[in-house]
Amino acid sequence: MPENPLRLEHLPATGTARCDLVLLHGWAGGRDCWRPLLPALRPWANLTLIDWQAATDGLDALVANILAVAPEQAIYVGWSLGGQVATAVAAAVPERVSAHVTIASNPCFTAQPGWPGLPATTLQTFADDLAANPARMLRRFASLQASGDAAERTLARQLLRSGGHWSADALAAGLQWLKSLDTRALLRGLGCPQLHLLAATDALVPALAATALAATLADKSRASVRVLDADCHALPLSAPLLLADALREFVAPAAATAATARAAPATAAPARAAPATAAAATPVAKGDIAASFSRAAARYDSVAALQQDVGQRLLGRIGELGQPATVLDLGCGTGYIQPQLRTRFPQSRYLGMDIAVGMLAYARGRHPSAGSWVAGDAEALPLACESVGLVYSSLAFQWCYRPDLLFAELGRVLEPGGSCFFSSLGPATLQELRQSWAAADSSQHVNSFLPVDALQAAASAVRGVRLQLHSERIVMRYERVGELLAELKTLGAHNMNTGRSGGLTGRRRLAAMIQAYEDWREPEGLPATYDVLFGHLEKL
Q1: What distance, in Å, lies between the first and last C-alpha atoms of the chain?
Q2: Range 130-142 average pLDDT
Q3: Alpha-helical runs (H) found in 420-494
């Protein structure tokens, strides 16, 4: 079987997912056109962003490739020519499409008798210009898409940057589709809910297209056409909030319709259930994590013997990688490992990232000429796709309780062939302390960490990555329990659980815990077990 040529991203919802959205860009475009919408869509939808090109062997081949990588059930959203592609998908496999949305799209871009569109001569001029001077033609097309927007030039540059993956043959094939495709009959045949969003002013889709489309779908009770108060064709970039609001309003009834269809009698056409994922309750709030480690920055290294030992072990697990363009030290903390990463990868750009701004300030002051220091959350990395060759992360991922988001983000930012080497903590960490507290009261006093099978399951759900995990038990020794508690507090890794008691721990309960911990005493002292996980995530 030939390799699927499509490039894509799967982005899990950051909240409770109502549905899956598959987003298809327009001619000569790319998935980056959807970036402005993502913050507004991800709280309630799983997203699949697909970089596609017009297939020289026809639209059916492209539809087959899209279906091979798309969710089993989804709402398809297509912008411009992508709207016609989405229509073709919905017509080909109606059982996998719960709803259909087009944005600034015309089911017949070429003007026909009684149908508003672009003159055939205009589209032929596009084709002639593409053959004569592709770069100039693409600049002209980007300007047309951005025409009317207040930031027209900036918008045109964004459009040009997003479509660099199109081949010359694909560009020519896509223009032929713009000239010849007519999906009006397919739209009339769809049974799923439809929404068609058009701009009030659009240099590529005449204003009268809204009226014509509404008339074409007048007998479709679940089809609607809306004209947005927007001034250009490039709606995903120029009016993301308007689009996000329209999509959110449309999804609730569309999802309810899909649920009703699934509950219909057996004689009705079968429908596959849309995957609905719920965000797991976060045991520790991200703000609490950031604040705690920020406060600990100045004294962290003085008690971080375990953390430094694990960091060294992790560094030793990195094999021969050459010199990646960018090395990301994710959860860099005080920047302790930065000099060694720079020595190991002298030709690479070093990027230190942490969720705790206090840690970053300390690291920047300690290594003023080291590279770049950026605040960021591993579950929502502020980095471009395929921009990092190596991610090094030691004892940071245990604070990520949505491994689906974590591995999806790592898979997104890693270059093909790139790697993430990480260490984390498993659920047996501080088991002695946890059991001793359990003997004293029923409150939660020790932070909880995810098991190996949760990490493996999350990574296996991300296409194009492979995870290998290895666990080791490291035992630290203390003469008194108070030494362990003071160390955890100094590190900023004390109990931050949302289920912790709101008041001070009473002396009697603390004494009961200390007495229970004494049952663990060995000749070498009181043990504190760390369940250390070493992982290698590879981008295939």
Answers
A1: 18
A2: 95
A3: 431-440, 452-460, 481-491
CB atoms within 10 A of CB 395: 24
Lowest mean pLDDT among 247-256, 279-288, 379-388: 279-288
DSSP 8-class letter at 157: H
286-427+447-476+529-539 and 7-262 share a CATH fold: yes
pLDDT at 280 over 60: no
State how far Cα 73 lies from the chain centre: 19
Query: Using one digit for the tens of pLDDT, what is the confidence trace for 163-199?
Result: 778 999 999 999 999 999 999 999 999 999 999 999 9
* Active-site residue (options: 51, 80, 149, 445): 80
For residue range 405-450, list pLDDT tens digits in order.
999 999 999 999 999 999 999 999 999 999 999 999 988 899 999 9
Superfamily of domain 7-262, CATH level 4: Alpha/Beta hydrolase fold, catalytic domain (3.40.50.1820)
pTM here is: 0.85
Q: How many CA atoms lie within 13 A of 296 on its CB side?
A: 23
User: Is 536 considered catalytic here?
Assistant: no
Q: Please tell me the distance from the alpha carbon of residue 385 to that of residue 11, in angstroms, as a whole number.
A: 12
Give the residue-averaged pLDDT of 206-220. 97
Q: How far is CA 431 from the centre of its chain?
A: 33
Three-state SS string across 484-514, please?
HHHHHHHHCCCCCCCCCCCCCCCHHHHHHHH
In 150-294, DSSP assigns E strands to: 194-199, 223-228
Q: What is the C-alpha to C-alpha distance for residues 503 and 512, in angstroms, rounded to an integer?
A: 17
Residue 443 annotated among the catalytic residues of the structure: no
For residue 233, indicate whether it is catalytic.
yes
Q: Which residues, in sequence order, are CB contacts of 484 under 8 Å at separation 6+?
A: 433, 476, 478, 526, 528
| Residue 103 near residue 233 (C-beta atoms within 8 A) | no
Whether the CB-CB separation of 186 and 86 falls below 8 Å is answered with no
Looking at residue 165, its pLDDT comes to 83
> pLDDT tens-digit profile of 486-514?
999 999 988 776 655 555 567 899 999 99
Tokens 């002639």 sit on residue: 128
Residues 6+ apart with CB under 8 A from 393: 329, 330, 331, 378, 420, 421, 422, 423
The CATH architecture assigned to 286-427+447-476+529-539 reads 3-Layer(aba) Sandwich (3.40)
In whole angstroms, what is the distance from residue 237 CA to residue 159 CA?
9
Which of 202, 329, 404, 531 does the annotation list as catalytic? 202
d(CA 73, CA 321): 39
Catalytic residue among 100, 233, 367, 494: 233
- Dist CA 391 CA 208 (whole Å): 51
Strands 326-330 and 349-354: parallel
Query: Distance between CA atoms of 88 and 85, rounded to whole angstroms?
Result: 5
For residue 105, give the H/E element and its range: none
Tell me the domain boundaries of the chain. 7-262, 286-427+447-476+529-539
